[in-house]
Amino acid sequence: MATRRFDPAQLARKGRALALDLADLAGDLPDLIRVVALRLRQGRLSADIELKGLDGIGADIRWAARRVAVAIVTAASRSASRRA
Question: Considering the entire predicted model, what is its pTM?
Answer without folding.
Answer: 0.39
